[in-house]
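[Q] Does anyone have a clean structure-token version of this?
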Amino acid sequence: MPSFDYDLFVIGGGSGGVRSARVAASLGKKVAIAEEYRYGGTCVIRGCVPKKLFVYASQFHEHFEDAAGFGWTVGESSFDWKKLVAAKDGEIARLEGLYKKGLAGANAEILETRAELVDAHTIRLLKTGKTVTARTIVIATGGRPNPHGALPGHELCISSNEAFHLEELPKSILIAGGGYIAVEFANIFHGLGVETTLIYRGAEILSRFDEDLRRGLHEAMVGKGIRILCQDVMEKVTKGENGLVIETMKGETLNAGVVMLALGRDPNTKGLGLEKAGVAVNERGAVIVDDYSRTNIDNIYALGDVTDRVQLTPVAIHEAMCFIETEYKNNPTKPDYDLIPTAVFSQPEIGTVGLSEEEAGKRYQELEVYRAQFRPLKATLSGRAEKMIMKLIVDAASRKVVGAHILGHDAGEMAQLLGITLKAGCTKDDFDRTMALHPTAAEELVTMYAPSYRIKDGARV
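[A] Here you go.
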């Protein structure tokens, strides 16, 4: 048998790459992992974690306002953007250290360099020019923001990457996109006092989510003062006397201090040497894999966003653990993508698991839809007008709950627990016989006894 420098070489130090490297090393395999930027990947360094910290920061102005209804007198408040960025940077550095500590503790070799494939078993380390060999290779290089290069003036715009490191908080921002990144940052910047506009080509934001939640969030955002322009796109961005000037398809001329592009993410495979190793990619540059995350080259696997399957951090970690089972434990294991809980950390928040009403209507002959909209208890004294929406989608034939959707405070936390419930195959009868926990918003999930309406053959009846 040929001799290799490593049993496993991982390219990419994000969640999927680090997990596969650390666990393989803990099993006694000789492992190296290479990362060209920072360990932790998109989620930890410039994605989910810093974004959630910014979400918390952006909520405090409403907390200060709400306090008056509960008898508190809050004095004059001010916000320091640079202080927030510095605190965020400190926490991200701490988390990156933990990722490295875990790898080192498992005896994985940590390489801080770009790595590119030379052939199916050979990797070049660009920092030194050295080449090494590995029996098995994992590609886990993640994704990157789509720069929207066809847009004249795209070089004047920022992506979510740069949004975490702005020198100054702008007075105004235009965000292009209607997905969760665009929506979350619109709420963040607005909450920090920035005049915020969202422009999106679609008829409604968050195209893959349940229609009731999409409309409910849209109304809440507009009610807060965020301008949302649907069915329109930017056609040109230029420098003006007082910032950037944006011309739209519908003929509007907009002005903004910053323009942020949140128009999707691309698999990060450019220049990786995949063609030299014979690894196949699709038309978007994503690595093509089978049900076990194996590429068309037997000894090369790919995990996470670089495969363009489900772009979520827990999914990349799950795929890594399935890779370990398949490659090193003689237990071929397919990742399970069914019933993945998802949250949008907007304001109000969205938490969802399972099928939307629209998707379920195509899949099941008859549905029962349970829907409640109400003012949460906290809002009664704070005076805030926003409403919560809770919705359960039930297959009428089996009584199985096939979708659960929440708009409101702590929706993401509830969605995680609902994920367990739906994964266990619970029926509406299970919900009905569960005692309510009062007074909570979540009790509504077990007290909606009669369907709000039914869907039969795709139509409401």
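[Q] Thanks! Anything notable?
[A] The longest strand covers residues 130-139.
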